[in-house]
Design a protein that fits this description.
Strand content: 5-15%
Radius of gyration: 30 Å
Strand order of the largest sheet: 3-2-1-4
Order of helices and strands: HHEHEHHEHE
Largest sheet: 4 strands, parallel
Shape: elongated
Distance between the termini: 81 Å
Structural class: alpha/beta
Number of strands: 4
């Protein structure tokens, strides 16, 4: 008993170990700790969201539409663009398809860049067109993590969910 009272006295003097006298009722006992609910598990990894620019030129309307459908996922955002070399009829047709598509209308995440920019692949116009698409996407939503610039010819081999494109 002398040792226990000495530890108790030393503990009060130096406050090294928590004293049971200072604990509130129920804390520190195994029964109380077992009855408490466990903490929630840590959140899993965040699934990334993508923002795409899918662009094309004269004669690329159907390829662009096919690529957009292959890439499409409701969590992502898309800007489609046919450049100034495309006839006005193709650009109007693309805008009508986007507007009338039931899934695109439901999620509201496919945007038409209605300003037909001249895009040359050896100059600053490509960068300008890409920045314009980013501005459109940022104005519409900031709910994306990565930006991907594709042409109408860039057909994916695997979907975002990892399923083969057949």
């Amino acid at each position: 008993m002398g040792l226990i009272s000495s530890l108790h006295t030393i503990n009060h003097i130096f406050n090294i170990f928590p004293s049971r006298v200072n604990q509130t009722a129920g804390q520190g006992f195994a029964e109380t700790k077992v009855s408490q609910s466990p903490p929630p598990p840590p959140p899993g990894p965040k699934i990334p969201r993508f923002a795409y620019l899918v662009s094309g030129s004269k004669g690329d309307l159907d390829k662009l539409w096919r690529t957009l459908h292959a890439l499409y996922h409701p969590r992502n955002h898309y800007v489609v663009h046919l450049d100034l070399e495309s006839p006005a009829e193709e650009r109007l047709e693309l805008a009508a398809r986007v507007e009338k598509h039931p899934i695109f209308a439901k999620y509201g995440n496919v945007y038409m860049n209605s300003k037909a920019n001249m895009v040359t692949y050896r100059g600053p116009t490509m960068v300008s067109n890409t920045l314009h698409a980013c501005a459109i996407l940022l104005k519409r939503s900031k709910e994306w993590d990565w930006f991907i610039n594709l042409s109408a010819s860039d057909y994916p081999l695997v979907t975002q969910d990892g399923q083969s494109m057949s």
